[in-house]
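Please check this one:

***
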Amino acid sequence: MKKLIIFDLDGTLLNTIADLANSTNYALGRLGINAHPLESYNTFVGNGIRKLFERALPVTFRSPEMVEKVRSLFIPYYDVHNADLTTVYPGILELLATLQEKGVKIAVASNKYQKASVKLMEHFFPEIQFCSVLGQREGIPVKPDPSIVLELLKTAGATAEETLYVGDSGVDIQTARNAQVESVGVTWGFRSLEELQTNGARHIIHKPEELIALI
């Protein structure tokens, strides 16, 4: 039986795309740059907010200075509005409760910055006891670097063989592979089934309850 399940956040536990899009478009608008349609953000997100801003900026504006300007406008706005339109995916709360009842440890490994990751988990899952929630932090490489997963293994006292890593994108599958952890791709998130298959997901599930059979 698996001892630890590590979840990605955006596109796996929560549908955060509308709030991410609105907050980025707000920052772009303050800088006189045209907004993007919501669907564009499905491919903008996944590698941390600096990469999100870089992708959202027109090519001629993609300098470190402009990325920082977008960040300085995005963070205060998103901190206030990050739960306006965000929703829990159907079946996720029931899945987490079942895992908790079975004594399986639950953790989060996200490329969303740390403050927002913790706030969203506390807001949407107040009854769930996560052994650790780790987001993007200064000095720690973002996924698909395995550092965040290896830190969670140590915190939980679990081995790679006792762990599943669950996510919706190629970045997540690469992260699991880099950490030598068994990967589970989910199809209800931001990215396609083909992306999960191309990146070599060990398992692919279409509904949260299907995870129970894998533990």
The mean pLDDT is 97. The radius of gyration is 17 Å. The chain has two domains: 4-15+87-214, 17-81.
